[in-house]
Amino acid sequence: MSTAYRNRIQEFKVTLSEENINLKTLRELCFNGIPFEGGIRALCWKILLNYLPLDQMLWESFLKKQREVYSQFLKEMIIQPGIAKANLGPFQRRRDNGGSSSESESRQQVEHLLQR
Question: What predicted TM-score, i.e. pTM, was given to this entire model?
Answer without folding.
Answer: 0.61
